[in-house]
Amino acid sequence: MKSFYHYLMKYRQSKAKDSIAAFANDAFLDHSFPKSSTNYDQLSRYLEMNGHYLESMSIFDDAWELYRSEEDKRIN
């Protein structure tokens, strides 16, 4: 299973066109982001304390759902 960060980086763009792309760009610049994590609770806690760049935690939740959906398809 690839990490959430690794998955999120596929949305990175030079000019963010949506909130998930903006999240990916900001996470890339966040050198403390838990890059190897696949754990929702760990990532959520980190972002709640350090994710000042997120407009809303719902952006993370939306990205997480995309991640889980794609990982589930990949595994099955």
Automatic annotation (TrEMBL):
It holds the Pfam family YozE_SAM_like. This is UPF0346 protein ACFFIX_23515. InterPro entries: UPF0346 (IPR010673), YozE_SAM-like (IPR023089), YozE_SAM-like_sf (IPR036806). Belongs to the UPF0346 family. It comes from the Bacteria. Transmembrane segments: none annotated. Residues 3-68 form the YozE SAM-like domain. Gene3D superfamilies: YozE SAM-like.
